[in-house]
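Worked example 2:
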Amino acid sequence: MDVYTNKYRDVPGYKDDGMIVITYSFKSGTQTEEHPSPGKPYSGTTRTAYLPNNTEGKEVLQLLRQAFDARLVFTIGRSTTVGLDGRIKWNNIHHKTSTDGGPSKFGYPDPTYLKRVKEELAAKGLK
């Protein structure tokens, strides 16, 4: 999990805050005993997510970091996007993977996103 801030770009709905950019990168590998199909391969992936660079965005970032460290953000399974097994996929903690387009395109503006993702993280024991 790599994080950087961009003070020159905002996410819609958070004017003059700048943005936090989170990049998750995984190499391909073989599933271990803690995965659903030990011994079978899985495909690597890179995912990028965005938060406003404000107090609440920084709070969500810290919670996402805790979730990532606890291995709660991703799982391995069947990807509904590509319809294939053995894929790294989101594990019911929503991320904004686009800076625009609104909720239907996984982007901003979405005025309730930060509240909702904090609720999802709290449901996994992170507050």
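DSSP finds two helices and seven strands in the chain. The two ends are 19 Å apart (CA to CA).
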